[in-house]
Input
Amino acid sequence: MTTGGTDKTKLGVLIASAPDRQNFSHGLRLAETAINRGLAVYLYLIDEAVPGIERAEVQALKARGLRLFACAFGAKKRNLVTDDRATWVGLATASDLVASTDRFVSFN
Output
């Protein structure tokens, strides 16, 4: 996986908590703050967080340049449609994000 040809500082954020949980909101606020400061932000939604792709604030951040990844297995497990709202990937992408971003944080 490549994080693109950007010279920006790259932040990786993994969210595993459900969209109605505080940690989901904390992760999104961090991603938004980082985008506002000019960072390249890579968000990976996994486990209980996968349904969060449907949230308006997630899609609004994507429209502002957030690189949005979601767990394809998590979507299948929850009978979610895998469409263009996110890039649907496996766990290897999470590993790639850890290795290729300047900072990586997770919210469980």
Q: What stands out?
A: The chain has a mean pLDDT of 94. The chain is about 35% helix and 25% strand. The chain has one domain: 10-107. The beta strands are 10-15, 40-45, 67-71, 87-89, 103-107.
